[in-house]
Amino acid sequence: MMNKYPEKITNTEELEELLSRPSKEVIELLKHLDGDIIFLGIAGKIGPSLASMVKRACDLAGVKKRIYGVSRFREADEQQHIENLGIETIKGDLLDRNFLEFLPRVKNVFFLAGMKFGSENNLSLTWAMNALLPAMVADHFKDSRIVAYSTGCVYPLVPQESGGSLETDTPLPIGEYAQSCLGRERMFEYGSTRYGTSTAIIRLNYAVEPRYGVLVDIAQKVKNNQPVDLTMGYFNAIWQGDANNAVVRALGHATSPAWVLNITGEEILSVKAVAQAFGMIFGKTPQFTGHEAPTALLSNSGKAFALFGKPKVQIEQVIKWTAHWMQEDHKLLGKPTHFEVRDGKY
């Protein structure tokens, strides 16, 4: 298994290998984990690399498990790509109760389904995906272990000097999207308490790689000579491969009542400084609009670092990878994070 990281990522295959590269701790976890594994909502930005990491870890650990990936698979090639990773796919709508009840009740569940982009345009569906579905999943998989993705958006905006919100802080979600995400957490907490389901809730903020994320959003503005909004002047970010490793390892810490974990990077990053770093690489002078507000959406991941160690890939490296990826005109996912939003309306 490779341990070193390249100076540049030259193609999608190399990128996906890096994103799904399991740590020795993940391999050890899968070696001793009982039961099969299912990924609900596998076809999003994170699901393929997370599932691939689990499959690779199982192979390296020498254990055989059935690994399922569930999604509507709206794009024709999505399902084939997942199957090529060695994952058994199941196509259907998770909000269809008959379909959900058809799913095998395996021991280990990763819940990735949810709605963010365009959530303001269809608030009822947003609540259905982010709160109703988790209640249904918590019931169907009550005898399983569940790792459920949530978001740092459930926290209020906090001063940069605070170091970011802690898991023990009271959630104060801004806007209906964030409120629905807290609803998701509460439904998994309810299921965990009612049924004794071992559950870990992951407040992720933000995972990045060269095809999407806050770094890509900023880099595109700089590269295209568009102004970068400084109003949300600071943010957290973590290399998605490091986030994946932490999320898989969280499965081994799932408890009842449900357990909450922030996952993000070490630093509080400046939007302006990151834009200037891309400007140096691109040979551009970044343009800015607005001024840094005294607060931002920030999380403190000290609890995760104490458990799993700090991220292995530094953000400076991801900036270089992202800049090269864009200079080579490789494919982007076209899914902006809307990190600039301060009123919760995504």
Automatic annotation (TrEMBL):
Name of the protein in its database record: Epimerase
Domain of life: Bacteria
Organism classification: Bacteria, Pseudomonadati, Bacteroidota, Bacteroidia, Marinilabiliales
Gene3D superfamilies in the cross-refs: NAD(P)-binding Rossmann-like Domain
Cited InterPro entries: Epimerase_deHydtase (IPR001509), NAD(P)-bd_dom_sf (IPR036291)
Domain NAD-dependent epimerase/dehydratase: start-end pairs: 39-210
Listed Pfam families: Epimerase
